[in-house]
Design brief:
Blueprint: E1 2-3, H1 4-7, E2 22-27, E3 32-38, E4 52-54, H2 58-76, E5 83-94, E6 98-100, E7 104-115, E8 118-127, E9 130-142, H3 144-151
Antiparallel strand pairs: 1-2, 2-3, 3-7, 4-6, 5-9, 7-8, 8-9
Length: about 160
């Protein structure tokens, strides 16, 4: 298990933008990961009108799990974690409108394809033991040099 303090060393998200509480398990050979986020009222996406986080935010939970998997793989190779960007979410299905504050959301993602530095993942979110969201995400990893070219070195943390 990897707790939040250690997660901060392998993914670029910091402060309220860090939307993972822990990694439960991962498999570098299988390119899969299980992680959790404890939904809290100080979450950047928390909406007091619904006392929770809209379920569509689950795609960001999945994206951060992907970032954690990438960071773990980089660490295993003795490399610095890479920056990644969501390219698209070509398919997403949601069963509930929100994740209630005070409950953990479990996310599972598995790499299904890789072409150059573009990766495809299948992901799912579970709440109270039931799959409530699933979808596909396409992401890209970039070098620090390319990241600086694209963004001027500015990253929302």
């Amino acid at each position: 298990m990897i707790e939040q303090e250690e997660l901060q060393t392998i993914i670029p998200h910091k402060g309220k933008m860090l939307l993972l509480s822990r990694v439960i398990e991962y498999n570098s050979n299988d390119h899969s990961i299980r992680a959790e986020y404890d939904v809290v009222k100080d979450c950047i996406f928390y909406d007091p009108a619904i006392d929770g986080v809209p379920v569509w935010v689950g795609f960001e939970f999945m994206a951060q799990a992907i970032s954690a998997l990438s960071g773990i793989r980089s660490r295993e190779k003795g490399e610095k974690p890479k920056i990644g960007f969501i390219l698209s979410v070509p398919a997403m299905r949601m069963e509930i409108p929100l994740f209630k504050a005070g409950s953990p959301v479990e996310v599972r993602v598995k790499e299904t394809d890789c072409t150059d530095m573009i990766y495809s993942f299948d992901g799912a979110a579970f709440w109270e033991g039931k799959k409530v969201m699933e979808g596909k995400l396409m992401v890209i990893e970039v070098s620090d040099e390319r990241f600086n070219e694209l963004t001027g070195g500015v990253y929302l943390r």
